[in-house]
Amino acid sequence: MERQATSTVAPKQPGVDKTVDRRGFSLRQQLLSLTPLVLVWGAGIAVLVVARFQRATSLSSLVLDPGFVGGQPWYTGAISNLGLLIWATGVTFAGAGAWVANRIGRTSAAHFLAVGAFATLVLVFDDAFRLHVGPVRQLMGTKAAAQALVVLPVGLWLAVFYRDVLRTRWMLLLVALGSLGVSVLVDVVANPIGDTALLAEDGLKFLGILTWSYYFAVTARDIAASAISSGLGRTP
Predict the structure, then answer these.
(1) Among 83, 94, 87, residue whose Cα is nearest residue 165
(2) Which residues contact 105 (CB under 8 A, 6 or more apart)?
(3) Stated pTM of the model
(4) pLDDT tens, residue by residue, 129-176
(5) What is the pLDDT of residues 40-59, one digit of tens each?
(6) 3-state SS of the chain?
(7) Contact call for residues 37 and 45 (beta carbons, < 8 A)
(8) Residues 205, 83: contact at Cβ < 8 Å?
């Protein structure tokens, strides 16, 4: 009796894109991938043109490193710059997790992570350009009101997606919010003067940034692991 032939073709898993050939991309595909770059470069060139012809400040103050412009040592603002990189890492993890969740049809998780990425991005811009002591403060009138406006997206994110938060390792988020909240409180209420007070404020902020970004890294990993397990028919 002949044995029935066994197919060697793996069944297509839900959400798996078969259009990407791991052997590489054709020249046409490579050229098509450059198309979005036209829009990106267009936006970048527009920013550079505005920087060149604006009259509010010198071009060097916009394009050069602040430490170089001010004649400061190369390590000026090292902790602050490191914090920005860590903030950006959190945004990247949240955005990547949202993409994965969307690809596998987990819409709620995708929205949760995408809005979380946006709220974190607002914090990144505020930290990078000190919006709460600059234009936002001028708009709101006081520093406290400006800081409240900056953190509003985070508050809305927590209020809308609290059920999703409770399905994650929420204690990490609680620690991050506690550290950042106390840092803001010290800044607004105590108006720290001296190295010790400054270390308390910015040290808590730095630890809060670390924990915040770690939370999104772990959450994105958990969602991706659950997706992979589901796709392979395993229990997450």
Answers:
(1) 94
(2) 14, 15
(3) 0.82
(4) 989 888 888 889 888 889 899 999 999 999 999 999 999 999 999 999
(5) 999 999 999 999 999 999 99
(6) CCCCCCCCCCCCCCCCCCCCCCCCCCHHHHHHHCHHHHHHHHHHHHHHHHHHHCCCCCHHHHHCCHHHHCCCCCCCCHHHHHHHHHHHHHHHHHHHHHHHHHHCCCHHHHHHHHHHHHHHHHHHHHHHHCHHHCHHHHHHCCHHHHHHHHHHHHHHHHHHCHHHHHCCCHHHHHHHHHHHHHHHHHHHHHCCCCHHHHHHHHHHHHHHHHHHHHHHHHHHHHHHHHHHHHHCCCCC
(7) no
(8) yes
Tens of pLDDT, residue by residue over 53-103, are 999 999 998 998 888 888 889 899 999 999 999 999 999 999 999 999 998
Q: Which structure tokens are listed for 23?
A: 């052997």
Residue type, 215: Y
Which candidate, 87, 80, 83, places its Cα nearest to that of 117? Answer: 87
Residues making up the chain, counted from first to last? 236
Amino acid symbol at 37: L
Residue at 41: amino acid letter = W
* Six-digit token string for 13: 């898993």
Select from 216, 235, 12 the least CA-distant residue to 100.
216
- Which amino acid appears at position 38 of this protein? V
As given in the structure block, the two tokens for residue 217 are 């890294």
Nearest to 184 by CA among 135, 126, 134: 126
Note whether 197 and 223 are within 8 A (CB). no
